[in-house]
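TICKET: design request
STATUS: open
ATTACHED STRUCTURE:
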């Protein structure tokens, strides 16, 4: 499943943000949120909720990619989300990727980062903790 397919499958909110795949890194989808008036907060800047949504969807897409080969279908339920905003997102495309820091049988920890023109200048990062439950239980 491509990054775009994973992003679209994660939530209707991904479609509302117009997220699309922008390639992969080590099998993990990189997502892009195109700039539009739909994601503006204060004039000229992205809304923090749109950035947070992008980070959450990037982290879930990373988990879905990691779990794709599993025979078991898993429901992913957020337990805790912490978002740190480093700088204001401006009127250009925003990229994000999730990196799994721990993947257990029932819990997963994922770090997600977002950037715009320079990957070394993050606009936000998030630490996300998920409960993993088999849908076969």
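STATUS: resolved
RESOLUTION: sequence designed for all positions
ATTACHED SEQUENCE:
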């Amino acid at each position: 499943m491509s990054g775009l397919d994973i992003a679209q499958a994660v939530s209707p909110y991904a479609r509302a943000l117009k997220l699309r795949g922008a390639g992969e890194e080590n099998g993990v989808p990189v997502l892009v949120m195109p700039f539009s008036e739909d994601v503006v907060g204060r004039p000229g800047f992205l809304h923090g909720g749109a950035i947070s949504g992008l980070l959450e969807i990037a982290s879930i897409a990373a988990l879905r990619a990691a779990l794709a080969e599993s025979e078991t279908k898993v429901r992913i339920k957020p337990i805790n989300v912490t978002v740190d905003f480093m700088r204001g997102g401006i009127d250009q495309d925003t990229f994000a990727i999730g990196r799994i820091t721990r993947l257990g049988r029932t819990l997963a920890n994922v770090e997600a980062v977002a950037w715009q023109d320079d990957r070394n200048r993050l606009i936000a990062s998030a630490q996300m903790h998920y409960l993993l439950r088999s849908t076969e239980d």
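CLOSING REMARK: Strands lie at 20-25, 28-33, 74-85, 94-103, 107-115, 122-134. DSSP finds three helices and six strands in the chain.
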